[in-house]
Design brief:
By secondary structure, the protein is of the alpha+beta class. 40% of the residues lie in helices and 19% in strands. It has helices at 12-22, 27-34, 38-46, 55-69, 73-87, 98-135, and strands spanning 158-164, 168-174, 177-183, 188-193, 196-201, 207-211, 214-215, 225-230. β2 and β3 form a beta hairpin.
Length: 242
């Protein structure tokens, strides 16, 4: 390999990069030989040390890379250490001088004086309010209005459920609308109206009828039966037709 680079002075990254380029090496080749990743070597050359796992890892990686490139690892590590020290935040300012201490003490006294005056003012106001409140009679308590029970709303809908025991024909007229169906054993039909509902079954013994959840089955088996329902009915007022 041609040439050699022995100048590890800051920046450390540029020295590493120059050494690699003088030796005609790519980052991929250097990563293969040093067992460091390409992105880690690139971070070392760019001096982007924050992306690396930590201070110990940075120092170890610098020594490995420097030895691989033929640089003095101690000088490279020392140059990095000096750079790290320079990057540390400035220490806090030293003790205050006599003038600064006087100014600070004066400000503290002013703040304490202000807090004392504010506390006295608040205390005077509270005492005044307490005297006034004791001097005024409390207004008589007004009567508590009696709670009025809200009426329980009723469902104005006429809802009839027909359950077939066997084959049965069910005819209906809900608010003027007619319909007819044949129910098979076990089938159920729900009929709804707002004002008037008339339900007729071909055989009263083959159908169970309920109004708004209450059983109103009526009639004689073998004969047709008609159930007339009006809005507000609870148990219905069926009448036979047949």
């Amino acid at each position: 390999m041609a040439g050699s680079v022995t100048d590890p002075r800051p920046g450390v990254g540029s020295a590493l990069q120059r050494a690699r380029e003088v030796r005609g090496l790519s980052l991929d080749e250097a990563a293969r030989d040093t067992r460091l990743r390409v992105d880690q070597l690139d971070a070392l050359e760019r001096e982007d040390f924050d992306v690396l796992p930590g201070e110990v890892y940075v120092r170890a990686s610098l020594r490995t890379y420097a030895n691989y490139l033929g640089l003095d690892a101690d000088k490279v590590s020392g140059a990095y250490a000096r750079t790290a020290v320079e990057a540390e935040p400035a220490p806090p300012p030293g003790r205050l001088g006599p003038v600064e201490r006087m100014i600070a003490a004066s400000r503290i006294r002013d703040n304490q004086r202000f807090l004392l005056v504010a506390a006295i003012t608040i205390l005077v106001v509270l005492l005044a309010l307490g005297i006034l409140s004791r001097g005024e009679a409390a207004p008589p308590a007004g009567p508590i209005p009696a709670a009025t029970a809200s009426p329980i709303p009723t469902d104005p809908t006429i809802r009839v459920v027909v359950v077939a025991r066997s084959d049965v024909t069910v005819e209906s007229e809900a608010d003027g609308t007619r319909d007819a169906q044949v129910l098979r054993p076990g089938e159920t039909i729900t009929l709804v109206a707002l004002e008037r509902l008339v339900v007729s079954v071909s055989d009263a013994g083959l159908a169970e009828v309920s109004l708004n959840g209450k059983d109103v089955t009526a009639g004689v088996a073998g004969s047709p039966y008609t159930y007339p329902f009006e809005a507000g009915d609870v148990g219905g007022n069926p009448s036979s037709s047949g």
